Amino acid sequence: MTAPAVAGPAPAPGRPVLDRAKLGAARFRAAHEFPYFAAALFALTPVASETLPFATMAVDQRWRLYVDPGFLDAHPVEQIAAVLVHEVMHCVFDHGARAEALAAADYRLWNGCCDAAINRILSTQAGRSGTALSLPGSPVLPGDLGFDDDEADLAADVMYRALLLRLPAAQPPPVPQPKLDRRGDWDDPTANGADHEHDHDCGSGSHAQHRPWELGPAAGALAGLDAVEAELVRRRTANHIANAVGTTSELLARWAQGLLNPTVDWRRELTAAVRHGVATTLGQVAPTWTRPSRRNAVTRPILYPGMRRPIPSVAVVVDTSGSMSSDDLDQALTEVRAITARCGIRDRSTRVWACDADAVEVSFGRRLDEIELPGGGGTDMSVGIDAALRAPRARPDVVIVLTDGYTPWPATPPSVKVVIGVLVPASTQPISVPATPAWARTIVIPVDPKE
């Protein structure tokens, strides 16, 4: 197989020519060692550049890879491959966008934290050959930033915030970032008082700050990736990492899990589900003669009916079987009460059913935080749902079920919206949820057991 040619501007007379074959070989070596990064590596658009102030490589937010030709001449393929993986991880981890989200004013500090997080992965992650790729010189690691061994696996965002908290507001952060001379060697910034003109800078792909050597929004072969294309590559990479479980580091697996299964605040989910369920009832404004219209005082002898808006109601079915912790139920009920209040549903419009093998309505009309829950036997939430729907007076618009999920469910979908809140310990990783019916909205509710 022939290595792909490196896209870039034609070299000016007297300037070194980019060794495209060597760069292609390094990219193939990197993809061979870390196949889950292959799509990302070959999504990079290489750009030959002698304007880099540190004779190595850098990336921008459009996934363009800036390569100093002298760096390729001075280093073996293995080390070039390691730097390629380092730079592509800035793009894959979306460090530029994360810097913007953090409002990272000190881009050098942020770049150092990102480099430390990436180099930690490279130093601990063996490639397909069984050994880790070696970066040139002595790359910065979390320990160089003052983090202990038990903090070595922190994300760049966490390290950045921690360093800001450790430093006085007026003191510049003493980040021991590695620096490079014109040979592309990573020097120890604390050794012998070394004085370099430029700190290592991985480009806007690392910190979102446009650098002088970076291209503008060029068209054609040097356009790079737009935001949508970049996100597709990230997700493809995350899928490959997720499928390579057992062969990737915990840091990579954690990143892939976070991208493919982002954490959503369950309170927002439950609030949205309840509001959607009661929206129809809230919109059913109907005329009624039990309360004449206030306009009748000026429209006599013509009389008009008043308007009546039904009050939405919610049924909460609580699993009180022996497998459920009373502390967990207390936490969940407190949150549910706050959510229903935000949705405009009064306590007296919320009916609570305690359910194990049987269902019993408890304390109708009292505040939810005053309810004492009986139960403690077997588990069958279908009994509780059926009891809530068959109860006299107002039929619920939404049924909220709080359970650990280990229960039978109705064989046929109920006629109202059902939201299942599955309570799981917050410390459980990865979260495993029992199967729930497709006709219900399932929301995972992490709970913290009380001491």
Q: What is the N-to-C succession of helices and strands?
A: HHEEEHHHHHEEHHHHEHEEHEEHEEE
- Count the E strands: 13
Output mean pLDDT. Answer: 79
Q: What can be said about the biggest beta sheet? A: 6 strands, mixed
Biggest sheet strand order reads 10-9-8-11-12-13
Overall number of structural domains: 2
Helix fraction bin: 25-40%
Name the beta content range. Answer: 5-15%
Describe this entry's structure for a reader.
The strands form four sheets. Strands 10-9-8-11-12-13 form a six-stranded mixed beta sheet. A three-stranded mixed beta sheet has the order 1-3-2. A two-stranded antiparallel sheet has the order 4-5. The chain has helices spanning 20-33, 38-41, 69-74, 77-92, 95-102, 107-124, 156-166, 204-207, 227-243, 250-260, 266-282, 296-299, 326-342, 381-390, and strands at 45-48, 57-59, 64-67, 179-180, 186-187, 286-288, 306-308, 314-319, 350-355, 359-362, 398-403, 417-425, 441-447. The N and C termini lie far apart (62 Å). The protein is α/β, with parallel strands linked by helices. The model is unreliable at 1-9, 11-16, 172-198 and 364-369 (pLDDT under 50). It has 14 helices and 13 strands. The protein has two domains: 20-260, no CATH class; 266-284 and 310-447, Rossmann fold (3-Layer(aba) Sandwich), CATH 3.40.50.410. The radius of gyration is 30 Å and the shape is elongated. Strand 4 (179-180) and strand 5 form a beta hairpin.
